[in-house]
Design brief:
D-Maltodextrin-Binding Protein, domain 2; 5-stranded mixed beta sheet; 16 helices; 10 strands
Amino acid sequence: MKKVISLLLASAMIAGLTACGGSNAASTSSAPAEGNTAAETTEASGDAVQITIWQPSDKEAVENWWVEKLGEWNAEHPDIQVTREAIDRSDSYAYDNKVATAVTSNDLPDILFVDGPQVSYYAANEIIVPISDYFPDLDDFVPSTVAQCTYNDQLYAIAATESSVAFYYNKDMLKECGVDTDDLDSRTIDNPITWSEMTAIAEKCTTADHVGTHIVMDHGEGIPYALEPMYISEGKDYISDDGTTAEGYVNSDEAVKTTAFLANFIAKGYANVDPITDEFLNKACATMIGGSWEVATLTANADFDWGVTYYPVADDTKKAVSPCGDWSAAITRDCEHVEEAGQFLQWLMNTENVASYAAAIAKPATRTSAYDDPAMAEYKNFPLSLLVEQLQNTAVPRPRTPSYATFSTDYAEAMTNIFAEAASEGTVDEAYIKELLDGVSEKFTEDYTTYYAE
């Protein structure tokens, strides 16, 4: 391992990589009263292979799903018994620190759930092992999931669910401000709104009562997660495709232009640098760059007419790109029964299980065939069908590099400072943007060169 000595520091940085939503940090496990094991429904024989899983705890419906499914597996496989420890994430560092401690003590579980951008880090440091042999045919999985879970041409993890981000709008507010909502409703994946159209809507809808749009998901991983497609659409991703350099990418002319476009929303007062919680739901903004999980929130709670359309594209290229990513299951280097763990993952990720798990956690499924399952019937209809369409056609995973945690932290900090400067000065300073993005590139280079360059 090249970087285990700094794993605790990295864990602190990547603890915030949960922008893909749905993971309920404050939820409690559906475990029995004794311990944190979320499912152990069959008394295993002393000769049975024991497989353990670690995963962040989630809402009750998900915990109940695990109890049911592990009970089903254990009843049908007395020779391979699986238990799961659901680790409470009300302390956002608890899960990551537990993993970091287990890495240094060589006491990892057999199967570990990791957030998508972390897969490359764990693979590069040989904390998880390749699982390509157990998933020889990946055609049914959306390409973005396969890409996010692949490092050096080997599959290291596999996910059941995905996420996406789209452009939400309050139809009542837009109509009051003279925006044609019928036009927004009629957009297709081949004709999404452009940056200039997004800006015009935000300008029209900024009033004394509310701002025109919402672009700051949070001041952590939400920034690189939600905004990356803007950069790709303009022509340059944050980091090179091979994950080795940020120089000429995050600090490129295209990146400076993209960042200036985003900062202009703050400078003009069209968006808030520190938005209130549930800003769109609370009618404090008219439009929003928001996650797929917002559909359930708005459906249940919004007292206004709302719509959602495809992620905006750069005027210059019209290239459609959308965010994605979610937690994935991996086999760790400390697993003594890799074959059995691989068999379990094959079963866990079959179409029926993916469909029922996605339904329980209220996220899009990674397998195309899952949408034919009755459990996913609502994803056939708008607005969830729009999110599936994006996942299957325009989704691009975050950069696959072992230095992603360093990049994410430094980029989010730089963007927060750029937005704060724009808010205080009322203008966008491209020289300042270039200076801060150069700093992001330099820190990435230092981290990658120190720990991973051959």
